[in-house]
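Researcher: I'd like a structural prediction for the single chain below. Treat it as a standalone chain; there are no partners to consider.
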Amino acid sequence: MPYPVPPGPRPTPIVGSLLQFRRNPLGFLTETAGRYGDVIHYRFGSAHVYLLKNPEHIKDVFVTHQHKFVKGRGIQWAKLFLGEGLLTSEGEFHTRQRRLSQPAFHRQRIGAYAEIMADYADRARGRWSDGQEIAFESEMHALTLAIAGRTLFGEDMADEAAEIGAALTDVLSLFPRFALPFARAIQALPLPSNRRFDRARKRLDATVYRIIALRRKSGEDKGDLLSMLMAAQDDEGDGGRMSDVQLRDEVMTLLLAGHETTANALCWTFYLLARNPDAEARLHAEIDDVLDGRLPGLDDVPRLRYAEQVLAESMRLFPPAWGIGRRVVVDHSLGEWTLPAGALVSMSPWVTHHDERFFPDPFRFDPERWLPEARAARPRFSYFPFGGGARQCIGEPFAWMEGVLLLATLAQRFRFRVRQDAVVEPEALITLRPRGGLPMIVEARRSASDRPAAAAAAAAALHQTEVR
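Model: Treating it as a single chain, here is the predicted structure.
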């Protein structure tokens, strides 16, 4: 290395820390972050990796000097599936695509989807009954995929949801491989996993291109995201519109990101509520008070403040996007250290969200961390579940609205209890899923007039907080 390197774990010959990371990514990051400073160095094969923990350093990469960094190796390999979508593209092309896509995510536009979200959540809960065991992870993925299909394409994709969901799972299961130094060689081998990946990609392409072709032929504006993307014109640039390939790449990115992260966030949220009955009771009190038995709508989202706090705390403890990477384009000074061109930079919400400097007792579930005064006391990038800077997730407002509406709709009618013999632990794929699924027992809630004492106390606490 041309510069001194920060402290970090002792590397194994040839592979560096790659095997330890592959065996247990979250364990490796937690142990490494706990032993060393704010800038940590390790190797994956010949690749030098710098893990950044400090919010100011993260801001430096995301915002202040973002032009010195591009997406990391894993995201570059994701182009095999996502093409040149917003998640993977770079430079002027990314700027153009972001400019074309932005109108589809204006607040007025996404606000029209609130009724769809609540309606689909109402349909899902209508299929469950008191005492029933459900595969909660599968249910959440089916729900958010159906919402993504309706808001993206203006179509009810219920008949295709299982097949599309299975194809997306096949694709996601291989994403950790793409970060390996020798991923190109592995992907070229005639492995069963590679054949599954190719079949899954072709299956999803067939659906997306079919819908694009039908929409081109009809010229119909269904008020969905696809209609907005097709109509978008680059008035600030070349004046052009998106080609079918560009539409496919953006739609595939939104289909994946738009359902996967929200589904996982809901899984972890209801898991945490099941383990924290006082917080659950307070959430139920707010839902009963705000909604009074009706389905939530757009105007209710800002009133469901505790629901948003619960969701925010869930994404702190179990961030759906647990690792974000960049590659250094030109040498960059970061305090006493220099990040050399070609090195990889890792910024992990899992690590920073569990840093006790910003979140005391960091593994404890506490929605009170998200009161306005508590938020204001922390550095901006102590919490970054949606990334930051010019590459911050374009669908963040959509995701927050969907998360709050689905949480309120499902919790309005039911509690969910983890099956007693279930072992629940996070699995770090491209997102943070519950390993092996999340078996839950559905419990019908009592009416507001039959609330237990804990819920009544929670309702009183809620009103006291509002008065303050």
